[in-house]
Amino acid sequence: MYKKIVSERIYIRTGILENLYALWFKENPMLVTTKEMFYQQSDIEQHKAIVYLLDKGLIEVKPLKDSSDEITITITTDGIDAFEKRVLEDNLGWGIILENTKED
Fold first, then answer.
1. Which of 5, 8, 73, 103 can pair with 31 through a Cys bridge, CB separation 3.0 to 4.6 Å?
2. pTM (two decimals)
């Protein structure tokens, strides 16, 4: 029972890291959004994933200069290491997620 839930939560967190990882290697290595959008609570799983990644130091949020409503989100060096390790070790956990969907 918990294996599927845990797999889904890992999938959400990995997706966030994957998006920020891809941005890191572009000209503008950060995501700019509003505080309201980033800290939304309508999708509780997404919200908890963001809080988890912040608490673990895998992503960083800073206020955008000269803006009271906008923030920047970047992946940290620890976040890059964690994402790359996950990619190399178990292909982003896809095996676990696909395996669990067969149980339904």
1. 73
2. 0.78
